[in-house]
């Protein structure tokens, strides 16, 4: 076992019988990192099997989210795990994009708890929540689970229907489950490196 990350992946694979990345070292070109391979394997999954997630899977995703960095370590972010059939049904009233997933992680941020940049007053809450969300997405992918970032939802409806979220601005939702669909066409479409990055 080359490093802690690979060991963790392998442990998880044993737990829920998925070998998602256990053969990664063999598949990696010499210069591609484990993380880069994961970043490329991730895709927006928009169809899920009925299979529920285990508590172990949910807890691994939450743990990866919990350790995300936040500006000045203010940690102004909260995650709600929408899992009961009633709550999932309610959430469908606020977004068209739960895609039948057995669990939806909702990530909210509290602006008045976040770091504020002194030069221009920019509030860091949304950025912090986006990083937490990114950890959710990538940990779900590392577990071999399908997932998708959903930004298209009615925040007022979520606020009204989920009083647990009071005081937070909802930033992003993540349907997660066992994938029943491959990547869509957009997954392969990225800017060329010379357009994307510039050396100065
Ligand atoms: C901020 C953000 C908001 C998004 N909102 C939605 C959404 O509401 N519904 C959806 O199906 N996909 C949504 N996506 C997924 C993007 O459409 C997808 O990441 C992009 O087309 C690239 O495809 P890929 O993720 O498969 O590589 C969102 C992605 C991001 C980063």
Overview of this protein structure:
- The protein has 200 residues and is of the alpha+beta class.
- It folds into two domains: 41 residues, no CATH class; 140 residues, NADH Oxidase (3-Layer(aba) Sandwich), CATH 3.40.109.10.
- 36% of the residues lie in helices and 12% in strands.
- The chain contains eight helices and four strands; from the N terminus they run ααααβαβαβαβα.
- The protein has a four-stranded antiparallel β-sheet with strand order 1-2-4-3, sandwiched between helices.
- It is globular and about 50 Å long.
- The N terminus is likely disordered.
CA radius of gyration is 18 Å
Full CATH superfamily name of the largest domain: NADH Oxidase
Bound small molecules, which ones? flavin mononucleotide
Residues in helices, as a percent range: 25-40%
Count up the domains: 2
N to C succession of SSEs: HHHHEHEHEHEH
**Shape call:** globular
Strand order of the largest sheet: 1-2-4-3
Second CATH tier, the architecture of the largest domain: 3-Layer(aba) Sandwich
Q: Please give the alpha-carbon distance between the first and last residues.
A: 39 Å
């Amino acid at each position: 076992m080359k490093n802690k990350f690979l060991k963790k992946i392998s442990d998880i694979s044993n737990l829920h019988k998925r070998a998602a990345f256990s053969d990664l070292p063999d598949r990696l070109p010499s210069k591609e990192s484990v993380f880069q391979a994961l970043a490329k394997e991730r895709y927006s999954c928009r169809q899920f099997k009925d299979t529920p997630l285990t508590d172990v899977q949910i807890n691994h995703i939450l743990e990866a989210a919990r350790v995300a960095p936040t500006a000045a370590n203010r940690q102004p972010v909260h995650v709600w795990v929408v899992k009961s059939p009633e709550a999932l049904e309610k959430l469908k009233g606020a977004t068209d994009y739960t895609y039948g997933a057995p669990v939806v992680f909702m990530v909210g941020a509290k602006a008045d708890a976040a770091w504020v940049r002194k030069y221009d007053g920019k509030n860091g809450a949304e950025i912090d929540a986006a990083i937490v969300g990114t950890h959710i997405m990538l940990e779900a992918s590392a577990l071999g689970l399908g997932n998708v970032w959903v930004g298209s939802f009615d925040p007022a409806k979520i606020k009204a229907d989920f009083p647990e979220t009071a005081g937070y601005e909802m930033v992003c939702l993540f349907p997660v489950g066992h994938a029943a669909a491959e990547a869509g066409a957009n997954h392969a479409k990225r800017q060329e490196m010379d357009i994307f990055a510039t050396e100065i």
